[in-house]
Amino acid sequence: MRPSGRPTRQTRMRPLTCTQECGQAARNSRTAADKLHWSPFSMTPAECLERIRAYTQQHPELREAHHFLFDLPITEKRDPVDVLVMGINPGESPSDFDICDPVAEESSAYDFHERDGAGRDHIPWHRHARTILRGTVAVQTEAFFWSSEKSGAKFRARFGTPIERSPHLKFCTEMNTALIAHHQPKVVVAVGLAMECWLPGRFGLRYVDTRFTSDGDSRVIECFTDGTRPWLLTKHWTGAWLSEGEKKLIQQEIRAHLGNG
User: Is 9 domain-assigned?
Assistant: First the structure.
């Protein structure tokens, strides 16, 4: 019997539909794993932000978003980065439009919550992230940079396609690749198991293992590698979706890769 709360290893069969989608994504994307070692998109975060701002203005549907998120510090200390956290896409609420006009930013250059709003400590997701990442240096990005209320029907209504089929993912992948190349994090943590069918193919990741809770009832982490660093695809971190045991497992897995587990 395994000790409670410790990471467990269990190999499972990958669902066929997911495998097919990941394979298709890999064929349709550039070999991102190579770019993580040397990138034709080698840019500083400030240069990436300039490109994101310009790209946003070129696409009317992106200008409908209240804000975008890229290279946002999660912890007070900023360098060197231990963990790069990648969400699906930023959340949005009607109250965001009361804080400031679109298109705003959550970034290392300007964070509208800090500059114009009540601060990041009022955001539940941010509080969960700081708890899980306590003792690390972490920055946040998103697989798709622009905000929406939901990543399902409301995302499609605003941006025209499901997120995994968005033509803007290619640009986001290039900018995120440059961000990873700049920060050289020890581990990338992608939050949301819904991304497992398309994110690995975008970044040329290879499946390694799956982590379950000690009772084996809950799948919490899908482990991948880009050949340089581990990538952990985890359950979403917000509220009741994550139990204390699942949160502890994610913390242990991250710390194990940082050498202080």
Answer: no
Tokens at residue 126, please?
A: 């941010």
Q: Which of 146, 253, 131 is nearest to 190 (CA)?
A: 253
Q: CA-CA distance, 238 to 103, in Å (whole number)?
A: 25
Tens digit of each residue's pLDDT (9 = 90 or more) over 8-63: 444 444 443 343 444 444 444 444 444 444 445 589 999 999 999 999 999 999 99
Pairing of strands 219-225, 67-70: unpaired
Q: Evaluate whether 55 touches 62 at the Cβ level (below 8 Å).
A: yes
- CATH number at 22 reads 3.40.470
pLDDT digits (tens, 9 = 90+) for 151-206: 788 999 999 999 999 999 999 999 999 999 999 999 999 999 999 999 999 999 99
